[in-house]
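Continuing the batch. This is chain 6 of the set; chains 1 through 5 are on the previous pages. Same settings as before, nothing changed between runs. Recording input and output for traceability.
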Amino acid sequence: MVIAFVDGDHGGELILKELLSSDAKVDYIARAPTGREVEELTSKEISKALANAVSVSQYLKRLEAEKPKPPAAEPTQVQEQRQETELIRIPNEILEEIRKLPGTLEGILYNAEWKPVDRLQVRDIVSKLESIQDNSLSYILFDGVVTQRLVELASSKNVKMIIGARIGGLSQKPKEVEILTFSDIIS
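Output for chain 6:
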């Protein structure tokens, strides 16, 4: 019986993938706790990890269940979850803007027709949203992290979609605001 005992980090995942793709005969897989290396474990933790070893087939099933579904080749349409489902089409010129934005620390605010309302630094987006009295904004595209504060403020201003570089730890996602990352749209 062969047990592959690997670190509980990304390096351990890579080693497992390499082992499983090679001709190595592995019966069971044991992993250190998440974020820990095997070398750091106490004898009690090692015993526990080995006792929790799973068969290779169970491990592969778990990986398949956790694997995110790949995005469509050119996802230019996003379904917004409202009471009546509405399809939001992202124009090609906006896709070009998304490709240009990474690294600029800029944001672009759009109206309902995807016409630019303002181009500004990421740090100024929240204050700009706070100052807007009417519901003239529908879309926010920016090279930054989508935060809970931004999402709540955008929701109160009836913004339909936020597209950011990445999403921070959001405790609540309002149904009326679609939240996406650059990688969700362009691949």
